[in-house]
Amino acid sequence: MNTHRPLAEIWGIEDYFPAEVLSNTYFEKTLETNDQWIQERTGIRERRRSQAHETPGFMGTEASKKLLAKTGVKAEEIDLILVATITGDYIFPACTSVIQRDLGAVNAFGFDLSAACSGYLYALETARAYVESGLKKRVLVIAAEKMSSILDYQDRQTCILFGDAGSATLVAPARSSESRIIDSILRMDGTGIPCLFMPAGGSVKPPSVETVQNREHFVKQEGRSVFKRAVQDMANVSVEILERNKISPSDVKCFVPHQANIRIIEAARERLGMPIEKVALNIDRYGNTTAATIPTALLDAERKGQVKKGDLVLLASFGAGFTWGSILLRY
Q1: Contacts of 98 (CB under 8 A, 6+ apart)
Q2: Residue tagged active-site, from 24, 195, 258, 261
Q3: Could you tell me the pTM of the whole model?
């Protein structure tokens, strides 16, 4: 009996960004803010906003089509689809159903994961488990968000931060020992729920005239609390996973942090002793695309030549829930 289990590898990543660009000057017209203030505090210059048809299902499907064309894998060869999103097309069915239908992945089943900004890491680890167990061979990990659909454009603390984007990652058995997902540490602390959440729309507060009038169907955030925890937890978990695997930060070719705020990224980078040229950054152009930030930033780093196949890559995130984690991989 063959007891050998395959390792899991990222075969490729693709992205989708809406065409509409919202620069910081857009907010100067309606809010007490300006481009300099936003850039100094967040590192964001612009972000993308989707049109009505550009839902997470649409963006995830478009990214998947490009990915399948790039990797030479057919839609019917996909076994499993995982979608990391908090802004799915519907409350139900799952966004996975939309993508499975529109992609023509007739042999796949799937489900959604809701872990906010950590959704991609949670989904990537789930995909690894399916592949390494031998249960599935070709797993599509979609991270797609239409944050503009749940933003209060009267709230300066939140609306300037987020953007829309989609991505698709193919996880499959490793073709060599040079590329594989090595390890992960994923964490959660539910006491952080009141610091970053959407109060209404679920069964606790179903939609009503009052919840709409009170603007409770939008993202609410306690910025200082989230900032403090993000700086601490994202840095700590990154250090922990490197120490556990006896790897020096100097051996990491590319650090891909969640793109929430440039000051959080800087704090994590300094804690790791990571030079800025090793850090993947796209927050200035796209803002915080929640679950989609890490895969789009990783792909951006690949296109810039910051990372290539076989390089040691460290991913780290922090999001609502609170959820956070880190994944170490050979790209």
Answers
A1: 55, 57, 61, 89, 90
A2: 258
A3: 0.97
